[in-house]
Fold:
Amino acid sequence: MSGDNYYFGDSVSMNGGIGNTGIVKNQAAPAQTSPELEAALRQLVELLTELRAQVPPARAQSLDEALPDIASPAVEPQQRHRALLAVAGIAATVGAVGQPVVEAVNSVLALIGG
Structure:
């Protein structure tokens, strides 16, 4: 198979010219979140703030680390999903005090199809 050319990804050929700017990628704009999802995320952030004050420092730090991935609209869906599962796990381990967080996470997951 020598001599076969396989290209994966972009292939660009430039033959002379002036003012070349390179490759322009026209990617889709990030998906807009629904008002329901925004409300559910706000509620979850409030509940996480309350829960944070009631858990040991190590768990509070884990909540702090997950919070930006949950609250940011620009985060990748998989990253948000992992953060949601992480905080649900922490909330589940602290019993009744964490139950509202678990329910809020389940609501967000239902809205994002996770």
The chain is about 55% helix and 0% strand. The longest helix spans residues 35-52.
